[in-house]
């Protein structure tokens, strides 16, 4: 019998989704209101998804041609609201699905993150997670009064200390601290709340948290580090990992690497759920799906500058300075290293234009094109071959139609195969994540 796997949704920020694309309604007028995101979360909960992850960045892109014009004109990751606010609204609209806002270590002090995520875990009844990122853009750093971000590996050294501080703050309230004993007139047992006196090389916090205990004890931690240092960090700390690799062999290698690193860190690898990014193209028939794939390819060819601008934003490299009809030269970055390395390796001797025609910066693991039944079978087979724990949907065109294609078309096909859940087994996020 095929193994059961997990499903998540990678939401490209709380910003205007699929701007200037079909089936987006009046999104340019009502983008600031939460109705679309709340409907999305409800649909995914109806399909029994494990979680929705809210990606974030806190700056307007300007890596392309040293200008913000292309980003603002085309709505590339802007405007974008604070994901913690969106997470609050999604929590109120749902009752079982996990919700994972992104918060960066350089934008929030550890105490602030510990208190915020713990508070969100309380109001969601134990369904909150935290997508921990160290940042990858000096433009974002400047918004917080920094000249630049630290070097890549140093950011993870700092993050190790950061997350240790956050975990200690979460643990500053012991189980049973709130007794609410009317007879003794005692709400909280003071012996079960302690200060942590954390003093590290980069961070310090006295504690304890004043927000009280988290229902989960420790909210779920998500991470997407793809570099060797990032993978080591994720293996030590993450409960679920977002993986951006291409092909079954790379997926299998990633899983094996994670198992090795987790054991080295003294953790049980089965408690870390590895989800691979996908963006299926779903049609009522295979022909319809292939037509849609062709349409998207043609659209990509007509939007080379916008796609390169997006790649520039992620990698901090100005691709506008490169000749589209020449091979991609050697490049280095203090930004998103894995994506840049993947793109350079993918490009090989091809020109920048040729490489971009087949490369997707969203990092989908496999091509999935067909009917719900065809794609469901392929997903099941790939998960068996790779040894992974699930898939994270990251479509380029998130709208009500694309959500329905997954929630009401693909997921029922997966359920008929017996490879995804038909009902939640537990009330809290972590428990559902560890159910299989």
Q: Would you mind describing this structure in some detail?
A:
One of its GO terms (molecular function) is oxidoreductase activity, acting on paired donors, with incorporation or reduction of molecular oxygen. Belongs to the NtaA/SnaA/DszA monooxygenase family. Residues 207-227 are annotated as: Disordered. It is a single chain. The chain has two domains: 6-284 and 364-433, TIM Barrel, CATH 3.20.20.30; 286-358, no CATH class. The mean pLDDT is 94. Helix 7 packs parallel to helix 8. The relative contact order is 0.16. The chain has 436 residues and is an alpha/beta fold. It has 16 helices and 14 strands. The chain has an eight-stranded parallel barrel, surrounded by four helices. It has a two-stranded antiparallel ribbon with strand order 5-6. Strands 7-8 form a two-stranded antiparallel sheet. The protein has helices spanning 27-30, 35-46, 69-74, 83-93, 110-123, 138-143, 152-170, 228-237, 248-264, 286-301, 304-315, 337-347, 352-358, 372-386, 400-417, 429-433, and strands at 6-11, 51-54, 98-104, 129-133, 178-181, 186-188, 198-199, 204-205, 220-223, 240-243, 273-278, 281-282, 369-370, 390-393. The longest helix is centred in the middle third of the chain and has 19 residues, at 152-170.
Summarize the structure.
The chain has 436 residues and is an alpha/beta fold. The protein folds into two domains: 6-284 and 364-433, TIM Barrel, CATH 3.20.20; 286-358, no CATH class.
